[in-house]
Amino acid sequence: QVQLVESGGGLVQAGGSLRLSCAASGRTFSTYTMGWFRQAPGKERELVATITSSGGRTYYTESVKGRFTISRDNAKNTMYLQMNSLKPEDTAVYYCAGDRLGTGYRYWGQGTQVTVSS
């Protein structure tokens, strides 16, 4: 089992950047596929990006391609989301989540608020 804690959220102007971090406890982080999700007020939670356990493959939802970069450092038990060229529509609570061995995203952090002002 892994415990996840997000950090790095905040208020930024449109066009700015933020880097989110997701710190994981435990010794099995490197076996988890990891993902970033977000939920805006009044909207359903959506998948933003995923990264395989080794970091060799990534996926991005269309709206963030070319602006966001997901990465991980298994030696530090940490995953990142570099967000550039932020837009007001990126405003949401961002969550990291872990999927071990294809069993689904069963492990979630508490979320970090990202607010982009226009």
Summary tags:
118 residues, 4-stranded antiparallel sheet, mainly beta, 7-stranded mixed sheet, single chain
TL;DR of this structure?
The protein is mainly beta and about 120 residues long.
Secondary structure: elements and pairs:
Elements: E1 4-7, E2 10-13, E3 18-24, E4 32-39, E5 46-51, E6 58-60, E7 68-73, E8 78-83, E9 92-100, E10 105-108, E11 112-117
Parallel strand pairs: 2-11
Antiparallel strand pairs: 1-3, 3-8, 4-5, 4-9, 5-6, 7-8, 9-10, 9-11
Question: What does this protein look like?
Answer:
- The mean pLDDT is 96.
- The chain is 0% helix and 53% strand.
- Strands 2, 4, 5, 6, 9, 10 and 11 form a 7-stranded mixed sheet that branches. A 4-stranded antiparallel sheet has the order 1-3-8-7, with no helix packed on it.
- It has strands at residues 4-7, 10-13, 18-24, 32-39, 46-51, 58-60, 68-73, 78-83, 92-100, 105-108, 112-117.
Structural class: mainly beta
Radius of gyration, whole Å:
13 Å
Query: What proportion of the residues form beta strands (DSSP E)?
Result: over 45%
What shape does the CA trace take?
globular
**H/E series:** EEEEEEEEEEE
The helix content is under 10%
Largest sheet: 7 strands, mixed
- Specify the number of helices: 0
Question: How far apart are the first and last residues' alpha carbons, in Å?
Answer: 40 Å
What is the average of the pLDDT values? Answer: 96
DSSP strand count:
11
The residue ranges in which pLDDT falls below 50 over 5 or more consecutive positions are: none
